[in-house]
Amino acid sequence: MVDNLWSLIQTLRHTNPLILNMTNQVVMNTTANALLAVGASPIMAHEESEIQALTTQADSLVINIGTLDKLLVESMRLALQQAHSSHKPWVLDPVGVGASSYRTETVQSLLQFSPSVIRGNATEIRSLSADKAVLSKGVDSLHRSDEALNTAKMVSLKYAAVVAISGATDYIIDGERIVRIENGDPMMRLVTGLGCTATALIGAFIARSSTVFESTIAAVALLSVVGELVAKRAEGPASLQLLIHDKLYNITEQEFKDHLKIVVG
């Protein structure tokens, strides 16, 4: 599998897919730079009058609800209608779902457009279960990644989507298939928007791939390995963010394969 993951990284670098990001105001710059670093071409847009045309041009969509408003939600629905009709892959980041009824209702409406991938922290993934209320702390996770596994399996089967759970250990679930990534560094929690970066990278990897599960694994693995590699050189969260972008750009095959800690099943 490791060879296949590296092949997906190389393919992304050479194919330059166009990724339409309807993301939150906090992370637009860092998200765009991360996508450029791995070889994708980002476009950041949300205006209702152009969003369907841009969706048609894009290879995939990233939908991130971090900073919601009613106009943005309506544009997201228009984009997803177009994506659904033209079979475009898309990834949903349900940031802070469960923190308010508005977020929860918005996510439930977006899920009807059949996301290819859903990525969130453990609390966000647990909050996708309609039969339970989950205590949340804004956009922060209050649960370990493994505590969301049962919900992730259920959500994956219900929506026929790959589910990625981010945390100290990352999990990627496709129905009954589970992969665990044991890379990363605790300091990554102190950099705002790294989860959003993971979602954007997933959007890039699934853009021109027929293997959504492996493409999601490749995206999550790449960011986790990169974070672990550069954390030892970072003086703090600010320099860590910059070093992550550099290493996304220049990571070598040997670095990736030597440091990846992956468990299948």
How would you sum up this structure, described in words?
With 265 residues, the protein is of the alpha/beta class. Helices cover 49% and strands 15% of the residues. A nine-stranded mixed sheet has the order 2-1-3-4-5-6-7-8-9, sandwiched between helices. Helix 8 (194-205) crosses helix 9 (212-231) and helix 9 (212-231) packs across helix 10 (237-250). 50% of the residues are buried. Its EC number is 2.7.1.50. Pathway: Cofactor biosynthesis; thiamine diphosphate biosynthesis; 4-methyl-5-(2-phosphoethyl)-thiazole from 5-(2-hydroxyethyl)-4-methylthiazole: step 1/1. Substrate binds at residues 44, 193. One of its GO terms (molecular function) is ATP binding.
For CATH, the homologous superfamily is named as Ribokinase
- Portion of residues in beta strands equals 15-25%
* Average of per-residue pLDDT values: 94
How many helical elements?
Answer: 11
Biggest beta sheet attributes: 9 strands, mixed
Strand order of the largest sheet: 2-1-3-4-5-6-7-8-9
Distance between the termini: 13 Å
Detail the poorly predicted runs: 137-141
* Helical amount: 40-55%
CATH topology-level fold name: UDP-N-acetylmuramoyl-L-alanine:D-glutamate ligase
Summarize the structure.
With 265 residues, this protein is an alpha/beta fold.
Question: What labels describe this entry?
Answer:
265 residues, nine-stranded mixed sheet, alpha/beta, UDP-N-acetylmuramoyl-L-alanine:D-glutamate ligase, globular, 49% helix
